[in-house]
Specification:
Layout lengths: L1 H29 L6 H12 L3 E2 L2 E2 H32 L1 H16 L6 H8 L3 H25 L3 H9 L4 H38 L6 H11 L2 H34 L3
Antiparallel strand pairs: 1-2
Length: about 260
């Protein structure tokens, strides 16, 4: 525990030092003020104490972004895992899914803007659509590939052992496919979170971290931008370290590789 705490403090010190040196270099070369670590921290304290960010609290910006992401990501997970599972079991459907999924993966998140605006106009539903459509292909493809890669002998052995469909699914299919599907969920989460921020900048959201960042551009309030970026990074670190890594460890223990 002590070793971990010292490592974190050392990392934070090195990061702060790099930030200071980088900021001083930018000011020396560009002759423009660059937000310093102490100024950003003091501004964060002010925002947490009640100062508003473009007529809305920092907490509201953060929770609104998190809410949008959770709703859209949940939609992507539901359809991605469900359709991926179905397509993985049927050869013809799998062949089609492979092509469709590949095409969808090639679509940049912001390329969904015209479709979102045509289908939903400008606003909340357009933002959710863009996030879900960006996260869906990765979840869908990894699920379909995982199911399709199960050896045929596995089902033959399950049949010989007279396993019910329920037991077959939860004792054989789920352990075999859990790690590949988890990879798809992890990648889909990252893509969805990035697209959320971009969508909030573009399709008319008036509250959210993406909105705060784009507004800081016009007001030259770069401290708010840095704080928003820091919160975005924090969500990613928390989701990875205390979400996916924990799940991955439990899955490895369950299948006997951990």
């Amino acid at each position: 525990m002590l070793k971990s705490s010292l490592w974190i403090l050392a990392w934070m010190g090195a990061f702060t030092l790099f930030w200071w040196l980088f900021a001083l270099s930018v000011e020396a070369v560009r002759h423009i003020p660059f937000p310093m670590p102490d100024a950003v921290v003091m501004r964060l304290v002010s925002l947490l104490s009640g100062e508003s960010v473009y007529d809305t609290s920092l907490f509201s910006h953060f929770t609104m972004s998190l809410k949008r992401w959770l709703i859209a990501y949940s939609i992507a997970v539901f359809f991605g895992v469900t359709l991926g599972t179905v397509c993985g079991f049927f050869e013809k459907a799998y062949a089609i899914a492979l092509h469709v999924g590949t095409v969808l993966q090639m679509m940049p998140g912001l390329a969904w803007i015209p479709f979102a605006m045509l289908l939903f106009g400008i606003g909340e539903r357009a933002t959710l659509f863009m996030i879900a459509m960006s996260a869906f292909p990765l979840i869908f493809m990894h699920t379909a590939l995982a199911i399709h890669s199960i050896p045929a002998q596995t089902f033959s052995m399950a049949k010989m052992m007279n396993l019910s469909s329920f037991r077959l699914f939860f004792t054989v299919i789920v352990p075999l496919c859990a790690l590949p599907i988890l990879t798809g969920l992890r990648l889909g989460l990252a893509i969805g979170w990035r697209v959320l921020i971009a969508a909030e900048m573009v399709v008319g959201s008036s509250v959210g971290l993406g909105y705060a960042i784009i507004q800081s551009r016009w007001s030259l309030d770069f401290e708010v931008a840095f704080i928003s970026i820091g919160l975005i990074c924090a969500v990613g670190i928390i989701a990875e370290k205390w979400g996916f890594r924990v799940l991955e460890k439990k899955i490895l223990q369950r299948v006997g590789n951990g």
